[in-house]
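User: Hand in any protein.

Assistant:
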Amino acid sequence: MLSPRCSFHSSWRPYWPSGKPVHFVALQRLLREPTPGVAYIWLVIVMLLWASGVVVARSVHELVQPIGFSFWRWVTALVIMTPFAGVQLRRHAAYLRERIASIFALGLFMAVGSTAMIIAVRHTTATNVVLVSATQPIVTVVIAWILLRERLTRWQFVGIAAATGGIVAMIARLNFAVLSSLSFNPGDAVTLLSVTFYALYAVNLHRWISRVGPLMMMYVTCLSVVVVLLPAYAAESLWLAAMVLDSRVVAAIIFMALIPTLLATTMWNVSVGRVGPNRATVFTCLLPLFGTALAVLFLRESLQVYHLVGGLLVCTGITLVVKNNDDT
């Protein structure tokens, strides 16, 4: 029997002796459980990649329709993943069929979350999007408490209050007249909606499809999101405006599919499994820092005092919420 080392011969076929495609086995090896140190490095990279996705979506927001952009992003991700996950899909087919309703509920959560984020960048800055997005761990804790009755500690309540203050500071731009007139940016509210649906996905993912690995979780997510978005995309194309796929838009779609969707989310899933969700979510504090820096560098957005104050309060709140403290 030929060893994998000998397979790069003139008679080479893209399969290992086990019958698995070479690229799938290589990806499995890449996604083996990393050391804690590697997982922490991955989490830093994930935040940078997610922030870059917000900046790229903001850069093309005037050229795309939000549902169409989201739909083609997920279609592209699905096409890219199919050669890697096809074998695993057949292996887990019976298990996944039993959970088809849960899979499509997860698809709905991710479809609304990702599409709402694209809508948000049409109405607010990339900087504000990443600042509000940094509240996702807090929203996740609240949803987990509602659905799973997980008890919040005293410090978690303090953290939620601090993060809420950060959101208020950012939305109101430290101008209390804005709050009194309720004239905040609607894009900020849409971002909070997106964060809520992302949190619903995060809380329920491992509860509903726990017996598959991160690649298969990502693949069935892509598949269900495409199915959920298809009728909405058709309606948008017929009654609002059709998606125009010029070179700049296509490049943005490919980037969004490869980097924030496939690479970053898979790295996140593996890292969370290694170091635990409490430690992993602390790294979301880096999202406003990376996102603001990228927006200032590439979109020429201005850095304001309220960004710093809001970001500091949000990061403080997140740290308190995920702090492993048994105090009540």
Q: What stands out?
A: The chain is about 75% helix and 0% strand. Residues 37-322 form one domain. The chain has a mean pLDDT of 77. The two ends are 61 Å apart (CA to CA).
